[in-house]
Amino acid sequence: RNIEYQYDQHELLENVKCLKLIFASNNWYLAIETEEGQFRLLRIAFIKKIHYAKDKTTYQQHTLAKYRHYFETMQNPMTLEGVAIQTAILKAHPAIKRYFVKDMKPFFLSQQFIETTEDGSVIFSVDYTQALEILPFIKQWSPSLELLEPQSLKTILKEELSQALSLYN
Questions:
Q1: pLDDT tens-digit profile of 2-35?
Q2: How far apart (Å, rounded) are the C-alpha atoms in residues 27 and 96?
Q3: 110 with 73: CB under 8 angstroms?
Q4: How far is CA 164 from CA 90, 134, 139, 143, 154, in A?
């Protein structure tokens, strides 16, 4: 298909392979592979037109199969394909621990309970591919959710929180 897409700028994506419709974070997305072999998620609301490409070739199952792991492990629309996975260690303070205890429904597919501390806090881990995949979640639960590791993600979080605070000073 040829897709006219308007996000930051107008794009004409030609001869894309439409792989899958995905509903995530209250939005619909179309997973595609571009003519150059790049994987992308397009938010449906920003698609202006879809029409048949002049080249009406089909694609084989192996094209879809190479993204199967991504579709099975995608946590939200900010999960990147083909990027190294990192792990964050988080601490849910006693005020919110009930949402993070062992066997509670996880917020992320990769979320793993680690331990309950002496003060009643819950330590758990979450895998992520980029800061934008996990930082909104941490901010949402702030100040009762503490990022313990990694330091690189803490640095980004501190900078973003500092910028936010400067708006109110």
A1: 999 999 999 999 999 999 999 998 999 999 999 8
A2: 27
A3: yes
A4: 21, 17, 11, 14, 15
